[in-house]
Amino acid sequence: MTDWKTRCARRKQSQLDSIPREWLIEAPPANQMNVMQIPRDSALLSIRELEITETVDVEVILQKLASTEWSSVEVTTAFYKRAIIAQQLTNCLTEIFVEKALQRAKELDDILQATGKVSGPLHGLPISLKDQFTMKGLETIMGYVGWIGRYADSDCVLVEILYECGAVPFVRTNVPQTLMWGETYNHVFGRTVNPYNRYLTAGGSSGGEGALLAIKGSPLGVGTDIGGYVDIRLIFIDTVLHSMTFVLGTDLSVFPVHSVVYTLRPSYERLPYCGAVNALEGQESISSVLGPMANSMSGVKVFTKAIIDAKPWLKDPLAVRKDWSDKEYGLVYHGGGERLCFGIMWDNGVVRPHPPLHRAMLITKRALEAAGHIVLDWEPHRHLEIYKNSETIFVADGGEDYRVSCELSGEPLIQSMLPDEGAHETALEEPYVKRLVGPPYHRNTYELWNLHKEKRELRKSHLDHWEATISRTGTGRPIDAIISPAVAYAAVPHGLNTDSFYTTLCNAMDYATSVFPVTFVDATLDHRHPPHEFYNHEDEAIYNLYNSGLFDGCPVGLQLIGRTQEEEAVIAMTEIVDRALRRFEKFHA
User: Fold this and answer.
1) Helices then strands, each counted (H, E), the chain
2) Which domain holds residue 373?
């Protein structure tokens, strides 16, 4: 068997060879951290291609495609060129198949010209996919050397439906080895970096997708989520998502809400996963889900509705048989959306968020109140128990799943995401949960069943806690949604993304959740908070990591947590929050 390092080098060269030579740009110097402007400055994109790729509203793109103002070939070409720029700047891609994608785009243009009708709700739209969604004839490596050369003989269900909806899958994006990391690095394709600051992580496990969307190399992407990874990648990238002193007053108005990355973490099985590859396959207590990523909430809605309208339960036996509900999108169970009540989770009792996250919550609270909504403090409920239960389920096989895949090639299992050189000095090597779980990690069947039983009890307890808030909302309903960080910090240096519970809570409780942008770290506003009584040594390490200068300019976003299987309502409430933030920004500008 060929040495695993040689196999990696050959596969990386093959990837480079798949890029058209005329799309290569002059690389910026290694010490240039922010590369967000390079697509505009590179001269590779024409003025029209810049207009196309910087149109962040997916509905607008679809309208222009349907009217033939833009052709699918030119839209796909424009985003492909920008994606290739993103690859050269952040190392975000895995599969590059230009000819295949452009052929698909031309077929769609020909159909529209011949019939005058679009081929579906996503007609002509290029869509990027995380490197889990199998496409016939393409490799699906998923971060493992031993999976090089593993070509799919069929499309996964999601890709089937995307083709039926008229979409143009055009690139696949990088993931970490094992998928179960909040950092995107593997031996085959290397490390994905954050285009806002390449010293910082793009998150994981969908970090490739996040970096690509951040630099507008795709109008719409699809990632996956099991421990908060759909949310975390976005938080670090373009919205950056997951101590109580703040200077109130006019300073609060400094929060530009640019159109950046939004996402949806749907409930278990609401969207089709069948045929996609995954880590920990067979672990079904906390199901991995797929979620859309876009630079506008319109993209999130368009994608979700299109996939559900395609009746995925006819192709995926696990997909929930539930039509898209305009009634739920109209918030009929939430007072019609006229006077919503939100709970804000300032702190989850496990790790306290950094100052920029606290400021983002204050901004959101004031914006919602100015729009006539109610905002109450959310009281965390049994979080440490939920955290321990979830993470113990994730390691119940003792790492056997990872070892088996690594043994296919002889590559080592990655033990740390810290860079070999230039690692940040305040590394936290032992996340708190690993001490909680403790050796031995391997669990027998009866122990695992008890964990599942405990998880069901925790879900019931958390549901009762949520329902009990009806006594203090004044609306006759419990709190409509929770707003919280999705991670305790903005993008951190490579290898230091240890916090995941703000989002793991949603995965464990199976709450439909979105992520939305709020502001950017501002070193003049986001001063270090005084030390607090630390919950654990991870909380202390994260507190000590904060340096406003290190994070200055990084995006900051939050998550909106709804109930199980109410994706339509979560999308609608996120649109309400987003409008409130934009109105508030305009009024205080």
Assistant:
1) 21, 15
2) 4-383+468-588
Show pLDDT as tens, one digit a residue, over the chain (589 residues): 579 999 999 999 999 999 999 999 999 999 999 999 999 999 999 999 999 999 999 999 999 999 999 999 999 999 999 999 999 999 999 999 999 999 999 999 999 999 999 999 999 999 999 999 999 999 999 999 999 999 999 999 999 999 999 999 999 999 999 999 999 999 999 999 999 999 999 999 999 999 999 999 999 999 999 875 434 434 444 332 222 222 222 233 233 334 479 999 999 999 999 999 999 999 999 999 999 999 999 999 999 999 999 999 999 999 999 999 999 999 999 999 999 999 999 999 999 999 999 999 999 999 999 999 999 999 999 999 999 999 899 988 888 999 999 999 999 999 889 998 888 876 565 554 454 445 566 778 999 999 999 999 999 999 999 999 999 999 999 999 999 999 999 999 999 998 889 999 999 999 999 999 999 999 999 999 999 999 998 899 999 999 999 999 999 999 999 999 999 999 999 999 999 999 998 887 6
**DSSP code of 207?**
H
The number of CA neighbours under 13 Å toward the Cβ of 321 is: 3
Establish if 422 belongs to a structural domain. Answer: no
SS3 at position 86: helix
Cα separation, 216 vs 210, in Å, equals 10
Angstrom distance (rounded) from CA 149 to CA 145: 9
CA distance 362 to 443: 43
Contact 588, 355 (CB under 8 A): no
CATH classification at residue 151: 3.90.1300.10
Q: pTM higher than 0.90, yes or no? A: yes
- Answer whether residue 452 is part of any domain: no
Domain count, the chain: 1
The span from the CA of 143 to the CA of 150, in Å, is 12
Which residues 6+ apart lie within 8 Å of 87 measured at CB?
19, 93, 96, 217
How does 201-212 read in b/e, with b if 16+ C-beta sit within 10 Å? bbbbbbbbbbbb
Polymer length in residues for the chain = 589
Q: Pick the closest to residue 299 from 528, 60, 123 (CA basis).
A: 60
Contact 431, 538 (CB under 8 A): yes
Strands 341-344 and 374-377: parallel
548 backbone dihedrals φ, ψ, rounded to 5°: -60, -30
Q: Is residue 460 part of a domain?
A: no
Side-chain-side CA neighbours of 47 within 13 Å: the count stands at 0
The tokens for 551 are 């994070």
Domain assignment present for 433 = no
Contacts of 17 (CB under 8 A, 6+ apart): none
